[in-house]
Amino acid sequence: MESSEAIRPEKMGPMVIKETWNTPGSIVSWERSENIYICRGECGGIVFIFLSDEMFRMKVFRDRVPDLTTTAAVLVESCIPHLFPVEETEEQLIFTTSAITLFLEKKTFIIRVENVQGKVIMQQNLTSWNPRGANHAEYDMQPDSHFYGLGEKSSFLDKRGEHYTNWNTDVFAPHLPEIEALYESIPLLIHMHDELSYGLFLDNSGRSEFDMRSHGVAFTIGCATGALDIYFINGPEMKDVVKRYTSLTGRIALPPKWAIGYHQSRYSYMNQQEVLQLARTFREKRIPCDVIYLDIHYMDEYRVFTFDPVNFPEPAKMMAELLELGVRIVPIVDPGVKKDPNYKVYKEGVLDKHFCRRLEGDIFLGEVWPGISVFPDFSDSRTSEWWGDLHKYYTDLGIQGIWNDMNEPAVFNDTKTMDLDVMHFNNGRPVTHEEYHNLYGMMMSKATYEGLAEHLQGERPFVLTRAGYAGIQRYAAVWTGDNRSFWEHMAMAIPMVLNMGLSGLAFSGPDIGGFAHHTSAQLLVRWTQMGVFFPYCRNHSSIGTMRQEPWSFGEEVEGILREFIGLRYRWMPYLYNLFHEAEQTGMPVIRPLVLEYPRDPHVTNLCDQFLLGESVLIAPIYRPDTDHRSVYLPEGQWIDYWDGTVNEGGRHILAAAPLHIMPMYIKAGSFIAEGPLKQYAMEETGELVIVHLYGAKAEVGFNAAFTLYEDDGHSFGYRRGRYSELAVKAVGDEASIKLSWSYLLRDYEPHRDVLRFALCYPFFTIAAVSGLSQISMEQLEDGREGWVQKGNKGGIIVQVGDAPEGGEFMISAEKG
Ligand code: MIG
């Protein structure tokens, strides 16, 4: 006898369900309620909320009452609904702001955005969902469409022709172009076409997809769970999109200066002696370094918030010596808490219900380093506060920075993460892990940042994270995970980090030298040369691989690395200024050329060179045994940093690059503020700045300007106005240049008596500097006012008193 079991569905072979994708159909009614426009279709509908003249949110809903909650990515204060006039015609609803007009076709729900000239910026043709709850929207793509953003993705800069998934994933290997999901998910797509750019930000922390490949004339955005909640962000320039996107999801917090120094890491420095020896070696060898990382071996059997009693028996003593040397420690903290009833963090967390559990109440157990582990539920502020508070353990030791790893969260099982039915209690609005997944890592870093801030009493915390979601920039720097010591991975880091920058993550970078596999002398040299110009600068390598501390390959290599790491420290004032700009405007520290030269057809997918700020062009060597490369210079005149050669832009040049040189160019007419070489960012050797002006011209029409931001580099005083802004200007006249400076604000008093101005490679021969006499190098070093000939191609250094009221001088050209 057979029971009904005989026809169990699984026995019947794969089931083919013909799914019907639903659309909202035509608009049947619309209403305005508290500045929110609810447009109802035959089935569900779309809510429109204008956040400004340039930004609106469109959220698809299926229930009677649309749910207007957002994820933690979006800043509450930037989400206030604004009212704009709406006009209804037979066919359309038309919303008009000062910058855009949104047309909503009543019959089809087609959404079109035009600029004031009537040019179509964006058109969404379709929005639909299947019975399982997946959502999908389709947009027009043009023959000249280019795509950017999307955070941490492999492959090239322009994402046209690509398909990506957003699902935070621990991918130890391989980081190949075809890998669609890595550790971070930033569902922001920037679409540039026809001299217009706009952004679409999908605020959905479940699995989502962006497809710029499969549909020829359209691209699509889809999500597997939750709602299609999309923000339209207007340009017209890509810079406007980045600025507005970061006003919506936040900008980086200005890091403490030490966090933008050079960092050294290894999986792992195994004991206290090794760490101290490492710190001493940096100082003996005079290679600047600010931070040493402690990877998982510092812990007592991988229990977070502990030190191993055998290998790190006296952490306080170790910290004291490191403090003397000016080296800081950043220890790793993973989310997995070892299941061990004798371990305080576990016991407390279980008793106080801090760990992720299923609806039925059982705690989710997963295996990671410490063996069977449990995972804090950072969706609850109560748990986040508890976790943040635990960091007092570290801050009491003088630690000010934490490294969050494995926070996708990574779990050693088939799915590589937490089970999808685990719940996040989300302050009373429970959601499944399936819907919450991409937020997990960010909420961990948020808890960490806030806990550190609480205990550091006014000092700026530093958090580094592997996983994140849109908005992560507010809490943490991001490194790009387990790359390998492959030349290909060095090259791939450029577009990856550039797109991260366009996606709000201004403070990011790869493991310099490569994490897994074995580095080589050349690869380490070339990667470090490039890496010292990336916003986040850490050399890190895996257990069992070739050592890659800067002295691992003999003296020649060591010398080159010392020079380049030193260059990062000398350029610290310029770099710090860029971080300040990123905090103020969201502009990334390193930029693809297309951001600064959007009309230049040569740069839409150019990603083997990049800009540091606006005016420094970096062209790394990313192949072995290569001592030349082609470099594209955009419009303008570009001065070779190494020898002062002036190159006309708008063309390709062939650059020579023996091992000790990485091609670098500075745009004529730009200022770069340099400081003294330091062994660590806060070394007390004064704050002399040397404001370099490259390629000055003694002619009418020459104009250059720069504002140098300065503060104490470590406290939050700057948020209460404790900073200074030094504005420098150079204006050319017939046969002279007037250089003037003034403090827009001087509520931070830099430690120096004089200011220096260096004219590098001027386009004229300098005869005299008004009111100042020519002095010797020794007199300059002694602090005298005056000017000296610098020797290289007519350059000079001018030294003046650093008076709060500013000043000016005239540089005149030699006649003839
Ligand atoms: O690979 O903590 O990406 O930087 O050294 C397993 C050990 C876990 C992954 C991180 C890597 C870190 C390593 N971790």
From TrEMBL:
Keywords: Glycosidase, Hydrolase
Domain spans labelled Glycoside hydrolase family 31 TIM barrel: 253-578
Domain Glycoside hydrolase family 31 N-terminal: 49-211
Lineage: superkingdom: Bacteria
Gene Ontology molecular functions: carbohydrate binding; hydrolase activity, hydrolyzing O-glycosyl compounds
Residue ranges of domain Glycosyl hydrolase family 31 C-terminal in the record: 586-672
Family per similarity comment: Belongs to the glycosyl hydrolase 31 family.
InterPro entries: DUF5110, Gal_mutarotase_sf_dom, GH, Glyco_hydro_31_AS, Glyco_hydro_31_C, Glyco_hydro_31_N_dom, Glyco_hydro_31_TIM, Glyco_hydro_b
Pfam families xrefs: DUF5110, Gal_mutarotas_2, Glyco_hydro_31_2nd, Glyco_hydro_31_3rd
Organism: Paenibacillus monticola
SUPFAM superfamilies, alphabetized: (Trans)glycosidases, Galactose mutarotase-like, Glycosyl hydrolase domain
Biological processes annotated in GO: carbohydrate metabolic process
Domain DUF5110 per the UniProt entry, residue ranges: 691-740
Any coiled-coil regions, as ranges: none
Name under which the protein is recorded: DUF5110 domain-containing protein
